[in-house]
Specification:
The complex is a heterodimer. Chain A is of the alpha/beta class. Chain A folds into two domains: 71 residues, D-lysine 5,6-aminomutase beta subunit KamE, N-terminal domain (Defensin A-like, 2-Layer Sandwich); 154 residues, Rossmann fold (3-Layer(aba) Sandwich), CATH 3.40.50.280. In chain A, 31% of the residues lie in helices and 24% in strands. Chain A has seven helices and ten strands. Chain A is elongated, with a radius of gyration of 23 Å. By secondary structure, chain B is α/β, with parallel strands linked by helices. Chain B folds into two domains: 94 residues, no CATH class; 297 residues, TIM Barrel. In chain B, strand 9, helix 15 and strand 10 form a beta-alpha-beta unit. In chain B, helix 6 packs across helix 20 and helix 9 packs parallel to helix 11. Classes of the chains: A alpha/beta, B alpha/beta. At the A-B interface, strand 2 and strand 3 of A face helix 7 and helix 16 of B.
């Protein structure tokens, strides 16, 4: 394949223009500014301009820097996946469940571990939905159970088994020291130990989640920021139908 | 002051409806106590510390009395008797009880009058401690004046109290008026207060008396350095509301998150537990002059900010009415609301102004707590910063009380040092450049803003009427607040609620209620 070399773009192709903002643990002044410039040089930038610097706390100085990046990347070698979603609308999703599954789809959602934030799981599950897109609770053909925040993995799995869930939606919003990874992994390990991993479609969500990361962690799919409920519903329905061998459902 | 023409009669009607709703709850509160209330009494009597397993002594004592099925009379009398028996101070008596050297007993060799007198002594010094913190704070505020409202409220959340202290000092220097130390995420569900300093918490530090002390000491130094009074905030909501209020009072905290319904709706804590704990915790806050912050902003993160604006107003009115029963004065009511309308909505900013101005006019003396956008916060930090700027403008134009600083990295990570710097410098800019904008504004009588404010009032009235007829607990059970349903006999902490026996004794509660509002 032909190489396709790229660099950041400012106003001229391959100018490599990048904006940076950071703090150094030093008092303000000309020496601090010089340190910022030298540090950015170490990051492999040239044409460094420290456009702003201010001591924002005792012994801490904040900088805004413009600089040109040196390395190039061969774009032809870049690969990334997105969760395989055939985008369907609210009515089509309900109709497919009714016709092919013949009972409501049971979906259990929770924000697991110590995470107290329900904003992600609520955006997908609550009646109201997100960004003009109805939440799963609004779907007549989906039984949506939102367990809320700070749900233990055992609690989530117990509920999923109790209601014979088809899919689990697991959200992690705020994460500190990468605890979201540990939480996601804990759930997978629990399901595998109970030998019930394959019973459920497992979907991860949150601002730090990509489909690649979710799949790497052992989930079926992952959804990041900006995802609307119908995307998740489309993914669940089409995947479950494919697994049942039903195809040709896309108009 | 900016002004919308509103019908005074309608405002009075809203206040009267809310009072009736609160009255029903207050009747229930009078009949019950909880393990957390009893532990709070012990803390005010001077019991502190933990046993070898890290369990607080106050928890051990309440459990001991529970095991003897004697808790329904309250722990005060039994503990007073135990102190007479031991002849020692509260802490030593507590240790003797926990170690089994002495036992809680129904009758001792002391006549009932002597036990009552001991209880009254203990209650008197407990209340004196609450008076002392109030006076210490007033003294400090005389020396270091408070900045003008809206006060800039900034959060620190490293999970290490010593790191938080460094961050707090930096924020204080950049002009913040209020420092809130974020609490470890799951603490609201712990039925005890952890002990000592936190150096590794998740999402924050534990609300412990030691953490409070460490941060207050640092802020006192900053007061001296900056010449401005710096307020300290923590969180009381959860299963230990009353106890946390005690720890906060003892360590001179200035504000506590203390909402009447937050725990019920968003943490699934039992309804009775919450209301009963809250009453005692608010009595303590009132006497110690701790400003409460209520959590109406949370409704809007789960429900739509336009559709459900009236539930925010209704909850503010209920929080105010319940606060009155707990002797909170206007200057202590940090009633909450938020700037959460979808930024793509046409004229959304006018609706925000209408909501903020309505809240201002309904509660003219309260230091309203205004929360920044979070729900529709963009992960493009530059756009996010613009959203916060509009929020800052709404806040200064409508003269809000407590202004929570929005962060450009809201949807991304807990704030970095320079995120806070960006936030505060934008607030300083907007507040200065538009300082007297509010006093220049009169909203058009039949304009969008005035019309919206009147609409929210009408919806609030209809909603409160429904709640009054049904009863607040039934309304919560029916999912009328934030679309979340909670049953009266469900939720966490129900097993810690008990009906007071006819001989129930809590002389601190009785004294606080009887003495009413105390200033000075």
């Amino acid at each position: 394949m032909a190489k396709e070399m790229i660099k950041p773009y400012g106003d001229t192709l391959n100018d490599g223009m990048v904006q940076l903002a950071f703090t150094l643990p030093v008092a303000g002044g000309p020496r601090a500014k010089k340190a910022a410039e030298l540090y950015v040089a170490k990051l492999n930038f040239t044409d460094i301009a420290v456009s702003f610097s201010r001591e924002i706390a005792d012994g801490f100085t904040y900088f805004v820097v413009y600089a040109k990046a040196l390395p190039e990347l061969d774009y032809s070698t870049v690969q990334a996946t997105e969760a395989r979603v055939t985008k369907l609308d609210f009515y089509r999703i309900n109709e497919l469940i009714k016709t092919h599954i013949n009972r409501p789809l049971v979906v259990v959602g929770a924000s697991i571990g110590s995470d107290a934030h329900t904003v992600g799981i609520d955006a997908i599950m609550n009646m109201k939905g997100y960004n003009q897109d109805y939440g799963l609770e609004r779907y007549p053909q989906i039984e949506a159970i939102n367990m809320g925040a700070q749900v233990g993995c055992e609690e989530l799995v117990a509920r999923a088994v109790e209601v014979s869930a088809d899919a689990l939606l697991v959200s992690q919003t705020v994460t500190q020291k990468d605890v979201h990874l540990a939480n996601f992994t804990e759930l997978i390990e629990l399901l595998e130990a109970e030998k019930i991993r394959d019973r459920f479609l497992l979907v991860a969500g949150g601002p730090r989640i990509s489909n690649d990361l979710a799949v790497e962690l052992g989930y079926d799919a992952g959804f990041g920021p900006g995802t609307v409920p119908s995307q998740v519903a489309s993914y669940m329905v089409t995947t479950l139908l494919r697994r049942k061998g039903v195809t040709g459902f896309v108009d | 002051m900016a002004h919308i023409e509103l019908d005074e009669k309608k405002i009075n009607r809203l206040k009267s409806l809310a009072r009736q709703v609160a009255e029903q709850v207050q009747e229930m509160i009078a009949d019950y106590s909880t393990v957390s209330v009893e532990r709070a009494v012990l803390r005010l009597y001077g019991v502190d510390g933990v046993d070898g397993d890290g369990t607080p002594l106050v928890n051990r004592l309440v459990e001991l009395l529970q095991a003897k099925e004697m808790l329904s009379a309250g722990i005060s009398r039994y503990f007073a008797l135990a102190m007479l028996t031991s002849g020692r101070d509260a802490q030593t008596t507590a240790l003797q009880l926990v170690n089994g050297d002495i036992e809680f007993a129904e009758q001792g060799r002391f006549p009932p009058e002597e036990i009552s007198a001991k209880e009254q002594d203990l209650a008197l010094s407990a209340v004196a401690a609450l008076d002392a913190t109030r006076q210490r704070k007033a003294e400090k505020q005389k020396r270091y004046p408070l900045g003008p409202q809206p006060w800039k409220y900034v959060i620190v959340a490293t999970g290490n109290i010593y790191e938080d202290r460094t961050q707090a000092r930096a924020v204080a220097r950049s002009g913040a008026d209020i420092i809130a130390v974020i609490r470890s995420t799951a603490q609201s569900l712990l039925d005890y207060i952890p002990y000592g300093a936190t150096t590794e918490g998740f999402g924050g530090t534990f609300a412990t008396q030691e953490n409070f002390r460490i941060m207050r000491a640092a802020l006192d130094e900053e007061c001296a350095a900056t010449g401005r009074y710096l307020r300290l905030v923590n969180y009381a909501s959860g299963l230990c509301m009353a106890e946390i209020a005690v720890c906060a009072a003892l360590e001179d905290l200035d504000m506590l998150l203390n909402d009447s319904m937050y725990g019920i709706l968003f943490r699934d804590i039992n309804i009775k537990r919450t209301f009963v704990d809250q009453h005692f915790s608010r009595l303590i806050c009132g006497r110690a002059k701790i400003i409460i912050n209520t959590g109406e902003d949370n409704y809007l993160t789960t429900s739509d900010a336009v559709e459900n604006a009236h539930t925010v107003t209704a909850s503010q009115l209920i929080n105010e009415a319940l606060g009155r029963f707990s002797l909170l004065t206007d200057d202590l009511l940090g009633l909450g609301h938020a700037f959460e309308i979808d930024p793509t909505m046409k004229n959304g900013f006018l609706y925000e102004l209408a909501h903020a101005q309505l809240t201002r006019q309904l509660f003219p003396e309260a230091p309203l707590k205004y929360m920044p956008p979070t729900k529709y916060k963009s992960t493009d930090i530059f756009f996010s910063h613009c959203q916060d700027t509009m929020f800052n403008l709404a806040s200064i134009a409508t003269n809000q009380g407590i202004h929570l600083a929005g962060m450009l990295t809201e949807a991304i990570h807990t704030p970095l040092m320079h995120d806070r710097y960006q936030s505060i410098s934008a607030i300083n800019y907007v507040f200065d450049t538009a300082r007297d904008l509010g006093s220049e504004i009169e909203f058009k009588k039949d304009g969008i803003v005035a019309g919206r404010a009147r609409q929210v009032m009408a919806e609030t009235e209809a909603f409160l009427e429904e709640v009054r007829v049904e009863g607040l607990m039934q309304a919560i059970a029916a999912g009328k607040f934030a679309g979340i349903k909670r049953r009266e006999e469900g939720g966490k902490g129900l097993d810690g609620v008990f009906k007071k026996a006819p001989n129930y004794s809590n002389p601190i509660l009785a004294r606080l209620e009887k003495e009413g509002v105390i200033n000075g």
